[in-house]
Amino acid sequence: MSYPDPRDSVLNKPKPVIHLPKDLLDRITKGAEPYPILAERKYEYGTAGFRMKAVEFSNVGLDHVIYTVGLIAALRSKKRNATVGIMITASHNPAEDNGVKLVDPMGDMLEQSWETYATVLANTPSDKLGFEYEKLLNETLISNISQLHERPAKVVFARDTRASGPYLVTALKAALDAVNVEYTDHGLMTTPQLHYIVRCINTMNSPYAFGEPTEQGYYEKMAKAFKTVMHGRTIQGPVTVDCANGVGGPKLKELIKYLPSAKEGGIDIKVVNDDVVKPEALNFECGADYVKTKQRAPPNSNAQPGDRCCSLDGDADRVVYYYTDEQKTFHLLDGDRIATLGAVFLADMTRVAGIDQKLKIGIVQTAYANGAATEYVEKVLKLPVTITPTGVKHLHHAAARYDIGVYFEANGHGTVLFSENAIKLIRESEPKSPGQKHALDSLRACIDLINQAVGDAISDMLFAEVVLAHKSWTLENWRNTYIDLPNRLVRVVVNDRSIFKAVDAERRLESPKGAQDEIDKYCQMYIKGRAFARASGTEDAVRVYAEAHSKTEAEKLASQVAEVVRKYGSM
Ligand code: NG1
Ligand code: ZN
């Protein structure tokens, strides 16, 4: 046994070098043998973890990546002396794809510096994995080497409904077994449910206990909070929820068992697109991404004019609302809208509770937020707005700087974060009137209703429903709070997207030189013209977004900026 004694790591002694036992290194290498690396491929842990196209999965590439993620999870758990999570999903991607993401101890995304370690290990061939694992262990644990001995690494994992999931789980288990990790397989779960469980486990017995670390605990916590916020309010008519034929379907149906029905003062949820038996149905002509990008309802949803509808994505961490009016015009209420709806409600409640002066409430958006939404928040709601680069981790960190930070990407991914200060104030304030009591009770319940670990479609949907009930608003009333500027999103394929370097929360191009000047020139040609171009973090393309006061102009601006990108991209 060549583990060094932890006492050797005291100051003034040379840095110890950890040498792992040979049998452990052999186990790592041997365990990886059935999952060889694809030599021609480079893997990168991006904004959505590792995600791959079907063709790569069938050529056996993702199993190798998942095996290495098991190893990284072991190191991460040791480093943080806590349980970490692994979610096997490719979210809104087509059914043949799959992917994997790591969940940090507080139920948030993996810390950015570890994305690099994950990338290194994923690109290491099986026969070098033992060596590389030992190297990373030295790099990451050297300052707290005693943790090697303290307790085993602990991991919980789950997967969405994709057909490749069970096979990928075998690769994951092989890695976890090789390095003696204690793990729990939670089977099928939504991404936010797994994040919830991780946070519950790591906050157990602390003043910030998040809840029971079980699926049942998740439903019970949400249902109890829902009943409290709903107290005396009525939800107008049923809500139709398109579950993208993904894991959100069975999980939402389970939650419904815990919720009061409309007759009991609760909610009537009609579940559609919940076929998890036919794997190819996942995200096919349905789901939040389809609705947001195509700007239309799923063809088979059978929604009637005026019906209140929403769509989840394949792993239920995104939600968007929509309806069709009597003239059959489709209206989308996306993440920007959910953010403003939630912020209005929370700001009102803190005002009624008499605690608004002590709390800083703000909204976090990305450059993709509609200009009308940003203007509405700043000028009408008079709340501050922070704009961050794309990717939930950026929004999450910015939201954590407010006492109540509401963050949403336009595509429907987001949540609300309450600071320790806010939670303490809301929990401990003494009401001085029945109105204040009601507001404080509602705020307390919102803290539980909203999944603060991560954006959660099911929780966000219930939150939107209770706010609509409180305001007695239809989707049309909600839409009329402000009118979106017409906009257009274009995907431009270029030789090398990495030459497009964006700054200022990705709103301006720093390089190639000259490109931004041309974009600015075009923007100035239109009333309310705004456009930007940035390299996608998840696809090999540059995305162009443009908005203006009319649809024709927004489209014209988008195509002009796309042309600028094509020109500089082919130089
Ligand atoms: P990229 O490919 O970097 O634009 C997309 C979405 C993000 C986020 C990530 C992660 C748009 C314009 N971009 O990022 O909002 O959801 O995927 O899945 O929707
Ligand atoms: Zn998702």
From TrEMBL:
Entry EC number(s): 5.4.2.3
GO biological process: one example: carbohydrate metabolic process
Catalysed reaction, written as an equation: N-acetyl-alpha-D-glucosamine 1-phosphate = N-acetyl-D-glucosamine 6-phosphate
Residues the entry annotates as binding Mg(2+): 91, 313, 315, 317
CDD domains, per the entry: PGM3 (cd03086)
Signal peptide positions (record): none
Cofactor binding note from Swiss-Prot or TrEMBL: Binds 1 Mg(2+) ion per subunit.
InterPro entries: A-D-PHexomutase_a/b/a-I, A-D-PHexomutase_a/b/a-I/II/III, A-D-PHexomutase_C, A-D-PHexomutase_C_sf, A-D-PHexomutase_CS, AMG1_II, AMG1_III, PAGM
Superkingdom of the organism of origin: Eukaryota
Transmembrane segments: none
Gene Ontology MF, one: magnesium ion binding
Function: Catalyzes the conversion of GlcNAc-6-P into GlcNAc-1-P during the synthesis of uridine diphosphate/UDP-GlcNAc, which is a biosynthetic precursor of chitin and also supplies the amino sugars for N-linked oligosaccharides of glycoproteins.
Name of the featured protein: Phosphoacetylglucosamine mutase
